[in-house]
Amino acid sequence: MDLHSGLPYWIVRNSLLDYYHPLENDLTTDIAIIGSGITGALMAHELCRAGIECCIIDKRSIATGSSAASTALLQYEIDVPLYRMAGIIGEKNAETAYHACLQSITDIKKVLEETGVDAGYEQLPSLFYASSPADNKLLEQEYEMRRKHKLPVSLLKKKEAKERFNVETPGNALVNETSAQIDAYRAATGLLTYHIKENGLKVFTHTDIKECTETSDGCIMTTDKGYKIKCGYAIIATGFEAGQFLPKVIMDLTSTYALISHPVAPEYLWPTHCLIWETADPYLYIRTTDGNRIIIGGEDEKFSDPQRRDSLLRNKTHILEKKFRKLLPNIPFKTEMAWCGTFSTTKDGLPFIGNWPDKKRIFFDLGYGGNGITFSMIGAQIICHMLQGIKDERSSVFGYKRIEKYW
């Protein structure tokens, strides 16, 4: 299945990485990571930094799956609000999840700085607005819960949001100063290129894993060409495509839409270029790029049929444009590119990180939902710690033991 279609901006902005290295023989390695997107790249970074031998295998060119189509907002705010998540997984666990995402934003920045990868990282405020006046109460509940757990947040009345950000919000808004945005494609390709050069990381592209079997002392993978990969551990970092390796369906598939504008004169952009999103489900979200373009995303649909998904692209583009102009009517917005893709969500808004209950040698690093990149950073750290025998309190919150309870 195609993960995306249309013309994702990041591939045009950066051009495809000319790297072609399919596996042409049997291979033995300590750890094999399946997936070369931002999740696999962060996982490889943590392992290389810890001195653990690993390799990456991907059936596509590097980072040309979901990472190429990601709008790459980095927020501590999770798709499921904190006050609601507390009722699903318990307040302490919800607090841990939110604080983990907050720390992840800083950790991603550190990874890019220590490797010298320019992924367009920019720290920005985030504006989370009520989609209707009726949602003001929801924001007040969320504000009080975040304040209780010492998360950075301010509550703005509708008039205050207009004065500060020049946005015509239907209701009040929550603001924090700790969000960020990046180019996920550039981050993934940059990190992998760095470790190929510095640590001898082996990356095998255009190599499709058809089977992954756990043994008493490791795993054996079989490629589409019949080659065998013997490894001590396997790490699945393939997003919703991980379904072929999971014994049970644990995610819902969703089609999403995004578009990007022509460059806009700086004086037309809203103050601070903050990230913008809303309480509605599905929600609209907006960001800028380093070239003063505007990215709009949303209009999600609860299906994954790529033909049906693609057929709606033109109509969804018109709807997103209309919503943007209502929110920011003074900006001369004109769409230059549009694309659509498929991603996964979970019932509690959290990723799945760690071992399946009866598997010890296969790890899953699956950052589902709108926080995929921050979840990927968390997952890379947790799995690296597990491999080293280091206790990580986050593992129980994001792990698979919660499956039977919520699914």
UniProtKB/TrEMBL annotation:
It comes from the Bacteria. Residues 30-385 form the FAD dependent oxidoreductase domain. Signal peptide: none annotated. InterPro entries: FAD-dep_OxRdtase, FAD/NAD-bd_sf. One of its GO terms (cellular component) is cytoplasm. Pfam families: DAO (PF01266). This is Glycine/D-amino acid oxidase.
